[in-house]
Amino acid sequence: MAALYEGYTLCGLVPGQTLTNSGIQGIEAERDSDHVVVTDSTRSVTLYKVSDQKPLSSWTVKQGQTLTCPAVYNSQTEEYVVVSDNKVIRIWKDEDILLDKAFKATVSSDVWRVHCLPGGEPVVLFQRGAVRLLDSLLSAPQQPIEEVLAQEEAIRWSTNIVADSQQFVIFTTEQKGDSFLYLHRLNPNTLQRYRLEREEPGLSPLSFSASYRDKHICLLYLYPNGHVYQSVVSVRGLGGDEGAQALPLPRSLLLGLPVGEGLLEAASAQLLDEAHVAVVGVPHPSAGAGKDFLCIWNTNFQTLQAGKEMAGKIYGQLWTFSNKLFIPHGKTLSVIPYECPKSSLASALGKLKQAKTEGELKQMSCVPSWNNILHGDKAQPSRPAETRKTVSNFIKTKYLNFSVQTAPVEEVQREVEGLLSRADIQDLQPLVGQLASMLVSRSLADPAFYTPSTLAQLVHTQSLCHSVCPDLVLLALERRDFFLCQLCLQFFPDIPEAVTCACLKAFIRVVIKTGEEDKEKSSTPPEPICPVGLHKAVLLNEVLLTAYSDTFLLPHLKDLSSQHVVLFLQYLQFLYLKYSQDASPQMHGLRSPSLTQIMDWVCMVLDAHFTVLVMTPEAKGLLVNLHSFVKSQVRLVSELGKIEGSLQELNKMKVKKDVGQYSIEIIELF
Amino acid sequence: MGEFKVHRVRFFDYMPSAIRAMAFNSHTERLALVRADGALEIFNFADHYFQEKVIPGQDGRAVEALCWVGQRLFSAGLNGEITEYDLENLRPRYTVEAYGGPIWTIGSNKQGTLLMVGCEDGTVKMFEILKERIQFQRNLERQKGRIVSLSWHPSGTLIAAGMMDMIRIFNAETGHATHRMLVERGVGASKSREVVVWSVAFLSDYTIISGDSAGKVQIWDGLTGTLVRTHLVTKWDVLCLSVSQDESSLIAGTSEGTVVQFQFISSTVDQQEEEWVRTRTFKNHSHDVRALAHTETAVVSGGMDTQLVVRPLLDKVEKNTQESAMRKIALPHRSLVCCAKKAGLLLFQFPDHLEVWRVGESDGHGKPGDSLPVKRKPEKLIQLKGKGGDHIYSSALSPCGEWLAYSTVSSVRLYRLQYNNISITKVSKLPKDLCLGHQLCFSSDSTKLFASSRHSSVIVVALNQLECKYLHTLKPKSGSRQPVHLLCTSEDGKWLATANTDCEIHVYDLHKRKLHCTVPIYSSCPTAIAIHPTTSHLVVVHADQQIFEYSLVQKEYTEWSRKLQKQGLHSLWLERDTPVTHVTFSLKNPAHIILHDMFMFCIIDQSLPLPESKTLLYNQMTLRSLPEQERIRHSHAFKICKNFKHVMCVSLLEDHSLVVAAEPVLHYLSEVSKRAQTTLSQFAGQYIHVMGL
């Protein structure tokens, strides 16, 4: 499950007069993952050390001159390259203090961008589409530059990519509402032009992002209507007839993002890896229409993985370098570390779902939150302190891993508690999964070791799921820790039917062992008597509430003994009667299954054991009762069916328009 | 069952006329009702409110008041004439000029010996009711100002007369006015206007109740001439009053469309003395309530919005029964549309003219629910204006579409139509015997015209290109004097069936030219009859919604009919409150009987099981929602289609497409409103003219 961690501020912004511009022209990587070069939209270039949140040095052009492209760092020569006033290329080194004294060369045509990849050679892309290696350009700065683009065609975005030691300059253009993609390969030079499929008229892409993988260049682009498309171009087939014709570029819809009201204006989508896209300036699906969110979406499952509200205006700019997102918003440029672990289906079920169930669970849960018990409503640590801690968590993790493997129960408990109490559990999802599986495997290996409260705490974070640590439920069953079982059933979205059934069996067995005394206590006949005690009922209810697919559940249900089946059916019958009598379906704050869930289970248990039940004398009365329930249900459904027809007819009647004085109609009588 | 192509015809813009006056005869339980166009209608309240008789009106005849004297019915109007109706031959019997200017009101004494009318010139005129006619007897003391309303004290000694600004009490013996009670005018601007006492009622305890144009219902002591109590019930006019027979309840109709009930009860529990207390208000009309009748169990009201409303009083009837349901009678209980099946023509009957239309065509096919593209639009071929000011009673178009006949109270007219270049020729020489035609009908080969005549007889006339020849008269043996209201022939030309308001159904063998049989008499009046084209079974539907099938060959009820009677019709079928007005058959499927009332049409499939009491009668929706294989299990004989409202005609053309003439309700209601406005202005104009204002 991808996660966004607590961010921090890199620098303040001086937004443009109109507030539509963040004041930042570009951010480029410098020597390592902790250094970036930030070029503002007017005159200065600043080098930052990211983890220290401070500038190392800064260079400015003279008043009256403007930087027209973001500065890039040439790691081979340890030089910076920037273009001022479109035509003047400036090159300087770290130790140069004044830009004006650095190397300058004026070229004959306007430059769009200089691109340089770490380890690669700087490339100059001219506004009219021509591409030159910086070295060859500087050897004859005034050399004529050809026009590649058509008259009204203009570059919108560009990047460069090294693929199999081949360097590519990729840029997109727009001409009269049509968008084109150019792939320029250097050494040997080839150019291929593609035409992007048209979206709704008047819509052109808001942002592009390109990546290279498996011998293909992958282009991702976002439209104002929230559609994120991906186009894949093979680098092999390039060449051939050069730029003669724009080939159509096939695309596939990766995501349809919610756009709220109206179209997106300032938004950007960046590929993070094969399966994840970071999007900024798009509303959070469960937080209304506000567009000031940074979200990570899983493109394979189309699920929202993480989301963060960004204070202040979003400019639709987003950069990503080495697991950090750089976002200008409001008056700050924030750095937000993120993580995109390999996605599993369970974790991809996504934040959306979890956020929802969390709310529900809070209402229904009779088990108080552990955090509340431990810390009460104590205020959470103040924000700045938190940011510091986040960083240190990573260091802590390593140590924790070690202690979990070896330390005695008490210590593990203390350590984990300490970790979880840090309030930013959401950010620790991968860690929680790791911890849980380590604890489980250690418990399985060492019968003396078991940390029920720690495991319960981990489950309670709701960051766990069955597929992350598949042995947890079985371990809990083995140790007869029914409370943990209940928690797992409650919080895991992906418990396999076999495990559900194992839980059911275990629960019923407990019921039978202790059930007798409960029965004797209650003796008033008019009320239906609950065949099981209260907290067993709670456990069984938890099973009834679990999601399942009946084809998978049915074979496992068959393993139940007939005695168990009768008792379970009695309990289901009790629930049914209780529900049909009570107007309010909620039983005193317990998590209770719905009527349809009960009926589904009744049907399934009957399906699984019908022949056995028919032969069992004590089940006879039960079957007769159930038959009458089913009959009443069938009647109800058929009555509803009748109403359905009339309601549909009512619907149709509304649209019936006035047909005037005469019409020839077809009617059908049945 | 299958799909039907339906010509949905909405251009028959028939509009009933406003209700002007009504009178209820509690002995025979007949309600007489007169409309603004002068048409008289008789409803049998004992037989499901069936409209059994209609006497068409006449141009310029405005009837203001109606009065039953025993079984005899009199009317008077602003033309100054008193008319007695011949309810057997459905025509005015005679007319007497009262010589007192326009007549506003008519009444009789309890004994039924004297008739009195209130005239514009301020006289109350007495007429002696003789066996065959009425004879002027005398005038009461002449007053200044018109006599708008009259009521005779049950003892016969005193008469109360509502006038302008006052009520007069006359001594019936001497003819002198004994009391003068001044009626207060309305407040404000209407202070300067005379108040019209639209209605008075003289009760046996000498209480007089009046309703006036200032919106008051007033209670007076008739002996002393003093005002007892005033109830202001509306801002506008109280137009009519009606008192129940036991004088314990009184209703007043207002021009706001409401009916207000008063009851003679003690106003508090411990109080012994009873008084008139306003109890209920009914709002069933959109416009003026011009006429009221207080039957034993119900309030009957009618007015500008043309609907007759029967509102049962829930303290007088058993609740939640059919009897307690309110009825609105909006359309006539007889067919005003005649369909020439072979020619695809429709004849529409209006009070004063006829229209012949050709239905449209389409060549498309479509799914159920679709509207097909109309290739040829429907076309009005002929509009024929009635002659002589008499309104049309009955009309018929021959199946081939070439003959058109219509009748008025005074004559029968026959026309020959040609369509290749449209022409209409009147057949000038009609046989003398053909002077009355309550019902008209052509044989299926269009060679004969049948016209029902006096005493339920039927005149048979042969038609050919050259002449129109009287053949013979068919007479029932029963000697009934009632008119025939239903007439039909069989497809093969062998049979002719008639039904009269004595509930008799006679079937004649046309080949033998004599009565073949009389169907056993059923207590409820037939509302539609038809003879099956292949089996020669007569299907009869009665006002109580019962359906019978009678084999003409065997002269007995058919097996199916017996089964239906044995099992009984579905309760929902019996609860419908509009009669079936037309029955027809499908040539394609002989087991199908097609019939309709105002709100639905129904195809009865005799091959299917009858619906049992527990099955869903209106099951088309359910069947639609079921998969095809299951439908057959759930379907029953009654296929009811409720897609259409205000159905005036359902007929099957030769190409098996259905013609449904129905009015959209919205259109209908807006028309009522529009009509009411124009009528109101006409009405006001008329009054201003009459009153000399």
UniProtKB/TrEMBL annotation, chain A:
InterPro entries: NOL11 (IPR042859), Nol11_C (IPR048897), NOL11_N (IPR012584), WD40_repeat_dom_sf (IPR036322)
Gene Ontology cellular-component terms listed: nucleolus
UniProt domain Nucleolar protein 11 C-terminal: residue ranges: 412-670
Annotated Nucleolar protein 11 N-terminal domain residues: 1-338
Pfam families: Nol11_C, NOL11_N
Biological processes annotated in GO: maturation of SSU-rRNA
Domain of life: Eukaryota
Subcellular location: Nucleus, Nucleolus
Sorted UniProt keywords: Activator, Nucleus, rRNA processing, Transcription, Transcription regulation
One Gene Ontology MF term: RNA binding
Name of this protein: Nucleolar protein 11
Native species: Sparus aurata
Classification of source organism: Eukaryota, Metazoa, Chordata, Craniata, Vertebrata
UniProtKB/TrEMBL annotation, chain B:
UniProt cross-references to Gene3D superfamilies, sorted A to Z: YVTN repeat-like/Quinoprotein amine dehydrogenase (2.130.10.10)
GO cellular component: 90S preribosome; small-subunit processome; t-UTP complex
Record-level Gene Ontology MF annotations: RNA binding
SMART domains: WD40
Protein's name in the database: UTP4 small subunit processome component
Residue ranges constituting the Anaphase-promoting complex subunit 4-like WD40 domain according to the UniProt record: 136-186
One of the GO BP terms on file: hepaticobiliary system process
Domain DUF7165: 438-594
Natural source organism: Sparus aurata (Gilthead sea bream)
